[in-house]
Specification:
Elements lengths: L5 H8 L3 H11 L22 E2 L6 E2 H11 L6
Length: 76
Amino acid sequence: MTTSDWRKAFKQLKAKPVKMKKYIKHNAPKKRTTGQAMKRCSRCGRFGGHVGKYGIGLCRCCFRDVAKKIGFKKYG
C-alpha cells in the first residue's frame, strides 16, 4: 500500500485491524534514547538552543521570556 496521506491509509486499514497493527509497528517513529531529538523545549517544542542546566528544559528564546519570573538576574 502506497499513499501520500496517512489519513487515507488509516481510513482503509480501519476495516483490517491486523494489517493496521502491522502498519503502525513498521511506520511508527523511532524511539530516541540520545541526541538532539531528545532535548526539546518544554514550552514551545524547539530542538535547538536548549538550556538544560538546573533542569530548566527551555530553549534560549523561552528562557529569555521566563528568566525574571524564575528568579534569574541579568548581570553586566
